[in-house]
Amino acid sequence: MFGSIGITELVLILVIVLIIFGAGKLPQLGEGLGKAIKGFKKSVHEADAIEAEAQAQAQMSAAAPGQPTQIPAQGAMAGSVGTPVPDQPAAVPPPPNA
Asked: How far apart, in whole angstroms, are the C-alpha atoms of residue 61 and residue 68?
């Protein structure tokens, strides 16, 4: 089942955990353990996706070395669709001489 750990050892471990933490804390411990495992799996899958994306991008750049790569605009703001934002502020005219 779990390698060299048998049923007797598992029962003994569960009894010790029940004595230490009590019956009220066991659901909280199980929930925390489940969330930790879920978060770990999610981070592993995200890391795999990021790695696959980087490999695909490297293959595309290696396949077309003469092609320029697209770089996102630095002045673009998230959420402003269709409204360009300049990279530098507009020039302010000097005050008129009196």
From this structure: 9
Q: How many domains, the chain? A: 1
Range of the domain at 52: 27-58
Residues lower than pLDDT 50 in the chain:
76-77
**CA–CA separation, 52 vs 58, rounded Å?**
10
Residue type, 17: V
Please give the Cα distance from 11 to 57 (Å, whole number).
51
pLDDT per position as a tens digit, 6-27: 899 989 998 998 898 888 888 8
63 domain-assigned: no
| pTM as predicted | 0.41
CA gap 66, 55 in Å, rounded: 19
